[in-house]
Amino acid sequence: MSEIGGGSGGMRPETALAQGRLKSLVERIERLEADKAAVMGDLKEVYAEAKGDGFDVRILRKIIRLRKQDSIKRQEEEALLDLYISAIGGL
To answer: How many other C-beta atoms can be found within 10 angstroms of the C-beta atom of residue 73?
Structure first.
């Protein structure tokens, strides 16, 4: 197993390549994490704005989740839910 960290002067080319690749990956992940934090902050602001306008944020989140689903899968899930509710005599 080749050593990635530490060591003295004469580094093998494949070790230097692995170090460069690792550093590149870490930096990309860090940038994406920062972007994700910014987007999460933006989402929080939009949901707060919706709440301020009188909308139910819980329902908005549910709508977003439903819109992400495939329409056929969503219809199957709704039919199954109706069937189960009917089987237990309703809500």
So the answer is: 9
**Structure-derived torsion over alpha carbons of residues 17, 20, 23, 25, reported in degrees to the nearest 10:** -70
Q: Compute the distance between CA of residue 25 and CA of residue 31 in angstroms, rounded to an integer.
A: 10
Query: What's the pTM?
Result: 0.63
The domain limits of the chain are 11-54, 56-91
pLDDT tens per residue, range 58-75: 999 999 999 999 999 999
Query: Could you please report the per-residue DSSP string of 23-60?
Result: HHHHHHHHHHHHHHHHHHHHHHHHHHHHHHTT--HHHH
pLDDT tens digits along 17-46? 999 999 999 999 999 999 999 999 999 999
